[in-house]
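Sample A.
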Amino acid sequence: MQSLSDLLIESQIFAKREVLSPHYTPHTLLYREQEINNIEKALAPSLKGEKGRNLFVYGRTGTGKTSCVKYVMEEVKNIPNIKAKLSYINCRLYNSRFRVLNKIISDHLTTYAKRGYGAVDLYEKIASWIEEDNKILVVVLDEIDIVKDLDDLIYTLTRINSDIKAGGVTIIGISNKVSFKEELDPRSLSTLYETELVFAPYYATELYAILKDRINQGFKKDVVDDEVIHYIAAISAKEGGDARFSLKILTKAGELAEEKHFQKVTKADAEAAVKIIENEVVYDIISTLPEHQKIVLYAIAILTKSGGTYKKLTDGNDTYLFSGEVYNRYCSLTQSVKKEPKSERWYRKYLSELEMQGLIISFESGKGIRGHTKLIKLLYPANKIKDAIEKQIFGTDIFEHVEN
């Protein structure tokens, strides 16, 4: 364990640690030139004072969605005499319609902030502020799907465009979940006139270049060898092409080397870092899942751990579960906590979302196994998933009586 005096000594590993942060926006975003250009094109009408289309940006965690949007926002701020006003809103913090409206007020009308206004008052204040000089308000909603009353928020923001004679609101929504709009009320959905942009995962070669660029800025010279960079890039590509994941591994590997007073980061440090970061990432992913997706994942975990109604299929050390069995256990779990199970149609969407998050994999069985059916495999240790959901969401024993 390092003492305080050790921590105050100049690092032999890191040169500029902040460039390794997932919140850092580099001057050049490698392999995202086309995506940045597409965001600029979508935003151009709003910047010219026209009522533009809303933009929804999708992609897995760590594909550069937020960084690219923030990059364009910085470009906009440097354009002189522009009427567009921007608000970036992290929906993990501002997760309701009232909080989002209040954040917009805080950004642009500070004299009216924190005065105890209700949502209607905030709406009217924002609308009149936009209309007074024909400005366009661009609202960036990062992790938009987390907003609890999203229908109300979407309807409120888009309603401004109908209620005012000049100016308008443009929404840029950022989400890991491509299908989140399908949960919107048709009333809200009908008000959206949007462009969609999907960010693909990074390849190993791209992750290598991104890591190399950050290492050149963030680490002392010759501290990280190419072998370590290639290893981290390959692991991260296999885990879904997540640049944020690769940077977390790199940073943790540097910290482990520093704790041992090494002069270089070794592959062993990187391998140890992977195990640590994987646990953190799983916990973070689970925390962002909607409640019913958590219950589906919990059902998969307990069936993988203990078996179920049907005979499990195994392939070496891998265990596959029948989709129908998982759905039945999901229904049992939801009823045990006095909730209404969703339909099989929604259940299939939940499986798709869990697969997109890299938590499970599924495929059609083909002929010979109870006809055509979907097989599901958990990609993380069942105990780890089960414990994370219990401790984080449900309490340690809320499902105990229905596990077996």
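Sample B, a different protein:
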Amino acid sequence: MNLAETIYQHSLNLPETAAREALDFIEFLEQRYAPVSTNTKKLNDTEAFLAAIAGGLSEDFPDDISDDDLGVDALREALD
């Protein structure tokens, strides 16, 4: 019999309130000793992207980009 089975067998001898208390303690231990996950909160795609590139732009990256600097989009029909 392994340890989990031994704990289970002992829990069968406990009254309901004591078994609930034992379960609460086991859940507490699970949280305490669980490996720390770096991704505990799921990020949406935008948040994940921004977190990934945060601080990735160099100091000389221009911060004064305007619409004049952007290209003109071609109509889909013009590409055929």
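Observation for Sample B: Residues 1-34 form one domain.
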